[in-house]
Amino acid sequence: RSTPPAGARVLMSLGDDRIRELTPLALEQQWEVGILPHPEAGRTMRILGVKGDLEQMFSHYVQSGAIEADVLTCNDQVVFSSVVIGEVFSFRLYDINKPPSRRRMFRGALGKLRDLRLRSYTLTTGKDQKISLAAHGMVVMEHTQSSLIGRSFAEALSMSDGRLTVLTLAPRSIFAYLWLLLRLLLQKKISLSRLPAAVGLIRSNRILIEAPREFDYSVDGKPASAGKIELCILEQRLHLLPGPALVPGQDQKQEKDTIRMGHLPVDETARQLVDAPLPLFSHAREEEYRELFVALRGQAGLSSPYLVLMVLSMLLALTGLYANSAPVIIGAMILAPLMSPIISLAMGLARTEATLIRNSLQTLGVGIGAGLFCAILVARIMPLENMTPEMQARVAPTLLDLSVAIISGIAGAYAHAKEEIAKSLAGVAIAVALVPPLSVAGIGFGWGDWPMARGASLLFITNLVGIALAASATFLVLGFAPFKLAKKGIAITLGLMVVITVPLYVAFVDLVDQGRIVRQIPTGQIELAGEPVGLRILKVRTGRQPLVRVILSSSKPLDTRHVDALKALIIERVGRNILVEAQLNLRR
Hints:
Blueprint: E1 9-12, H1 16-29, E2 32-35, H2 42-47, H3 54-63, E3 67-69, E4 72-74, E5 77-79, E6 82-86, H4 102-110, E7 119-125, E8 130-135, E9 137-141, E10 164-169, H5 174-185, E11 199-204, E12 206-219, E13 222-233, E14 238-240, E15 258-260, H6 267-273, H7 286-299, H8 304-323, H9 326-335, H10 339-351, H11 354-381, H12 389-392, H13 399-417, H14 423-447, H15 450-477, H16 483-520, E16 524-528, E17 531-541, E18 547-554, H17 560-574, E19 579-586
Parallel strand pairs: 1-2, 2-14, 18-19
Antiparallel strand pairs: 3-14, 4-5, 4-13, 6-9, 6-12, 7-8, 7-12, 9-10, 10-11, 11-15, 12-13, 16-17, 17-18
Helix pairs in contact: 4-5, 7-10, 8-9, 8-11, 8-14, 9-14, 10-11, 10-15, 10-16, 11-14, 13-14, 13-15, 14-15, 15-16
């Protein structure tokens, strides 16, 4: 070992442990070090890009120049690959030289779901910046090629910039844990400038990691435990002969620390989550909940702009319904202000906030009452009393309409929870499900058409309850309410939805039955009683004895013989007794 003089070019054909032992001497003697193939040096060969046989590597080192490489140490022990702290999925269960298959990694990670806990750590950087956080584990590496996880990132971190890198993994829910695991297993490159919400990054020349109690860690796959470890980049650099597969990166030395914590639990949030079982979905941060709750509490209150917009949107919707104009109705949907109190009500149900629920219901009640009054007044004044297709479309709700309400509620809650999403988009989606049926219900009351009013009112109530329930569940999933608070309000809303779903299900079954009957009836030119007849279906009504209304057209006079022939044909195809109402037209 003392034979090579200072500054000599030294090629080592040794195992990983022997190479690590000689590294301090290589630094002291300023050797230019190259690694030759060796059966026990798999980790070092992979990290330093050694590929090829002995002769090829000799030829490569003769021609290549040395680079100044950083040397990472953990408690004064040289680190070649990485330091893994705590639980980093299932990676620490395996030899880093023999990465497991995707299936084995996924199974290993799933096996830890029940034991997942966030642990408390305090990190102090070389600039004396102190960070208290909660994390499952951390991966410390000198450059991205030195770690199994590091190679999942798009950018290559230099091995000559005087900085070590700590990747902190802190999924705050089982769902976030599985999502991050899936991203890594799919080998989709992750940008270090746009880290996932569950990943943090710290870069410094020195990092001290402390914890209230001893934690497990491993250095290049060798397990250890401690209550404090110090990681640093040595001032003295190693003169390294890079292998042909090594990408050294930029040699520019960095002075500033880099800290990207993103949405990781730090400080007070970290203390709340430490050692608690991971929830299925992430809980919103305290500042996120506070901002959203204050905004929704303000939106739940009754105001004059709300009433003005409510009346205007109803008048616009009524005009569109009478004119049978879909564009005008869509304009009313956009104008409607019902989004705010409904989303506030959903948050009140999720958090069981009595004041928020009361204010939201009061605002909704006044708005709905004003809208119905306008609709009834217009229906009484308007001389038109013909039900248009746009009105007819909103008097027979089914389960399909309930699905519209649920999707609208999810969209509304999600848009309010995410500042980067325009809330007007959710407002349109919610208004689509509420303004038109409320207008039709008012017209029905004004006309004294109780079946029309009843059907439109059922659709309106269905959509209102569906939106509130879906929005409450969305807030629960997004972590704005713990389940123990949400279960009472959601249970009440769910009970109302179950009651409403019964007539919707019956209507949906009838709709399916109507479609089946319509498909069995031939349309167009058919032959009845030996004569060509044109057939057009007007309406199909289901029940114990279905009713089919049709128009029969012919150039010759038609009579009961043709109607009886049509009825026999339909009964044969449908397989059940029916009534037929036929309008007989003479075509000339």
